Amino acid sequence: MIKYSEIQLDQLAIHRVGNKNRAEKNFVSESLFTLSEEMTEDLMKYFIKPLKRSHDYYRFKGEEANYDTHPLHRAASTVFSDPTALLAESENILNHLYSQSNHPKIKSGELFVAYFNGILIEDELVAGIGIFKSEQKSSFFDVSEGHNQLVMSKKEGILIEKLDKGCLILNYEGHDGYRVVSVDNNNYEANYWLYDFLDLDYVRDESFHTRSYMQLCNDFSEQVIGEAATKNEQVQFLNNSVDYFNKNEVFDTDSFLEAVIPAKDDFEESYKENFEEKFKDEFRNFQKDYNVPATQNFSISNAALKSESKKLNNLIKLDTRIQIKLDFNNPEGCRDFLEKGYDESKGMSYYKVYFNEES
Length: 359
Prior knowledge:
The chain is α+β, with helices and mostly antiparallel strands. The protein is built from 11 helices and 16 strands. The chain has 2 domains: 201 residues, no CATH class; 148 residues, no CATH class.
């Protein structure tokens, strides 16, 4: 976990990066930006606030023996060894970003390269290098005094409430690609920032494993259960999965499968024979397609669980244009207060929902 309460901004270089595809030129500043107390306060909000919402750790791709070939790992190592090298290395970072800015949709913008101190990660105080890019400009009115009246003009500038793209390289685990957090709020070219420029990979930690399994469960419910059972069973499987992650601190494949096996009544007849064994085999085969070990134990990340739970498909859509949305944070309610049946007189299936009062 990263804590920013003691973080300080020590140095800042500002350049402008163009689009290589459109043959736009870069603008290189010859000196570091002079920081004032007021400006530093606003810049810290602009840079750091979006990063606080990022719970995933990344690392630069590669191995310890060949990190010298990774331009950002090399630049970070140089600056961490000698912070006075920030300006020179910021130009190298600018040129690397420019070389990756060859898609017509990529916007030009200001590039900020910052050096921070006082970042706490895993109880260790470390330095950090921030790389931030502004792309979107916002219009505003500038009002000034004329001779006998106020004069208003329209200008454009950077909206400090929204960071477009950014990352923070932490001087931690440098032998394993450092630890990096990243944000991209203008995801128009998905690979450009995270993979082409930063060239990052996820750190295989509890957050990564929790997120991966939640995504796996969502796809399994749609692609496997959805082929053999009703939408209700899909949602109930996801509901059971979230319930397991909420109630356990450590994930274990065998105990997970025991906890999430759905009722077989709503499955096709061809699927009911040896139901439990068939279900478990299907899940383990699905794991292999995801390149996830068939048996795996890991600590569950509550932050990743909360984030991924919001992405799960929790809607039961009916052909009568009625939708039932289930709350994965209340798994007992989904099981106890929702019943499915069949009305012989109408020749239709139905759901019965129990409640005390409307909210």
